[in-house]
Amino acid sequence: MKKKKVNLRDLKLNSEEQHSHDDGHDYGDGSAFKTYIPAIISFVMLIVGIAVDYFDALPQFKGWIRVVWYTLAYIPVGFPVIKEGWKSLIKGDVFTEFFLMSIATIGAFIIGEYPEGVAVMLFYAVGELFQNAAVNRAKGNIKALLDVRPNEALVYRNNNYVSVSPETVEIGEKVQVRVGEKIPLDGILLSEKGSFNTAALTGESKPNTIVKGEKVFAGSINLDGVIEIETTKEFKDSSIARILDMVQNATARKSKTELFIRQFARIYTPIVVFLAIGVTFLPYFFVDDYVFRDWLYRALIFLVISCPCALVISIPLGYFGGLGAASKNGILFKGASFLDAMTKVNTLVMDKTGTVTKGVFKIKEVKAIGWEESEFMKYLMAMEEQSTHPIAKAILEYKDEGADYEASEVSEIAGKGLKGIVNGKTVLVGNKALMTANKINVLEETETIVESIVLVAIDGTFAGYVVIADELKDDAKETITSLHKVGVKNIMMLSGDKDSITQKVASELKIEIAKGGLLPEDKLNEVELLKQNPENKIAFIGDGINDAPVLAASDVGIAMGGLGSDVAIETADVIIQTDQPSKVVKAIKISRSTRKIVWQNIILAFGVKLIVLILGAGGLATMWEAVFADVGVALLAILNAVRLQRMEWN
C-alpha cells in the first residue's frame, strides 16, 4: 500500500470534521482575545437595546434610530454568516446552516423583531466559539504530537557534529542527542544505554531504558546523558511521521453513524425549509383570521429550529473526542469506523509470543549432573557464544564469577545443535536428537518438560540441561479476566510455537481454546471458520508482522507494540503503542463510551427539535425557544462530547 507523504509542518485534520469552518467562517480557535470581540460587541449592544426598550429610558430610541442600533448590533456576528451563506449559494449548496440562519434573522428584522434577530445570530456565534474550543480541546492530544516533532539533528559530518534539518539526514548517519533533546529520527542506540521519555508516542509516563543495539524512536526525549544513535529511517518514514499520517487519515474515515447523519441532514433540511414555506402560506386557505406576519414569524422559528447544527457538529466531535482520548492512552484507531466496530467485538483471537508473553527467552531452570552449576554453565556459555539463536542470547545472560572458557572447532549440526571443544573437552549442546545421535543417555524427566530445553553432554556423558521459557507479561492474566467482564466471551489463542507450550500458557491464563504449531495461513483459516458464524464479531491481536493476513481478515485488527513496525501500521486497524495487552480492554471501554455519548447527542437533538418544531408550528414557541432548540442543544451536545476528554477507564 503506497503511503502518502506527510507534511509535518501543517497537520490539518479533515475539514469536514470541523463542520466546514475552515472556509472563512471562523469565530475563533480560542487562541486570541480578538476572536471574541465581535460577539462581545453584539452582546453589549443587544443588552443595552433591550434595556432601553424595556424601561423606555430614551423616548428617542424609536423608529429609524432603533433599527440602526440593532442593525449595528447584528453586523459583527451576522455578516460572517451571511457571507458564508452567499458563498455556499454560489456553489449550489443552498440548504446550509448559514443560509438558514441568514434568512431567519433577516426575516425577523423585516417583521420588526429586531432584538430576536440579533439574539439568534449572537447565540449562534457563541455556539460557534464553544464548538471551536471543544474541537481544539479534542485535538489537543493529537496536536501534542507536533510538540515532539524534532526541529534539528546533530549529525557527525567531516569529523564534527553539525546542526541540520532532520529532513536532510540520511540512513546510516551518526546523530548525537543531548540531555532533554528529542531524538530526531528512528535509529539504533550506539551508546551503552539511555533513558527516554516516550509518553507522547506510547502514552506511558514511565521512563523507558534502552541498551546498546536496541531501537530508539523519533520524538522520544533523552533523559540521561549525551547519547549517539545510528539512523535507520529517513525523517519522512520515522515513527512520529507515520503516527501523524495515521491520525490525519483517521479523521477522514467516518463511522456509519456519522455518514448516516450527514446524509440525513442533506434530506431533512430542505424538507423543513419547504415545510416552513407551507407554514407561511397554506394557513391562508384554511384559517379565517389569517395574518401574514404571525405565520411568517412561525415559519422563521421553524427555520431556526431546523438547522441541523447539534447533529452535524456534536456527532463528529464525539468520535473525534474518542480518537483523542484513545491516543492519550497510547491507543491509535485508524478511523471512527473502527471505534464503532470495537464496540461490537465479542470474540478475541490472540497470538501468544509478543502479545501475552514478553517474547524474550529467560533461563527458568539450570540442572547440572555431576558438575558444579557455575562450571557447567561456563562450558555451555562458551558454546552458545558461537550461536545467534534467541535461546543462546538467553543463556549468555547467565551471570557468574570467574573467567569464561573459549570454544574451538565449533560446528553446527542442522536441526540438532552444536558440537565443539571447550577446555580440552568435547561438548555437545542441543536437543534430544543430538544426544541420541551421539548415544548419550539423558534423564527421563527431560521428556516431560514442556518448555524449550537445552541438553548438554561433556566428553560423552550427559552433564545436565537448561530450561528456557518465555515470560508472561505482567498484565496478561488481568487482561483475560477484564475481557470477560466487558462481554468478550470467546477468547482463542493461536500460536506458531509448539502446541505443548501454547497449551500451558493458555492454561495459566484460563483460555479454553488454544492451538499451537500453526503457520500464518493456518491462523487465517481458523479466523475464517469463526467468521462463518455471523454473530461473531472478531478482533485479532498480534505483533503485526507474521500475523498480517489475520489482522487484515478480522473485523478489527489490533497490533501490539506497533510503534516501530511498518507492517503493523500498514495492516492493523488499531495500534496499541505499548506492549500491554490490557490496553485492548481500555480500547473497548473508550469505544463504548464514545458510542454512548454519540447516541445521547442524537436523542437529545432530535427530541428537543421535534418538540419545539411542533410548538413553533402551533404558535406556542417564540424565537427564544427556537434559539435553545438549535444553539442551546448544540452547546449541550458539545459539552457532552467533551466529557470524553475527562473520563478515566480503569
Automatic annotation (TrEMBL):
Q: Which UniProt keywords apply?
A: ATP-binding, Cell membrane, Membrane, Metal-binding, Nucleotide-binding, Translocase, Transmembrane, Transmembrane helix
Domain P-type ATPase A intervals: 149-248
Statement: the UniProt record of this protein carries the keyword NAD: no
Enzyme Commission designation: 7.2.2.12
| One Pfam match | Hydrolase
Q: Where in the cell is it found?
A: Cell membrane; Membrane
Domain of life, source organism? Bacteria
Q: Which family does it belong to?
A: Belongs to the cation transport ATPase (P-type) (TC 3.A.3) family. Type IB subfamily.
Q: What is this protein called?
A: P-type Zn(2+) transporter
Origin organism is Psychroserpens algicola
Gene symbol of the encoding locus: cadA
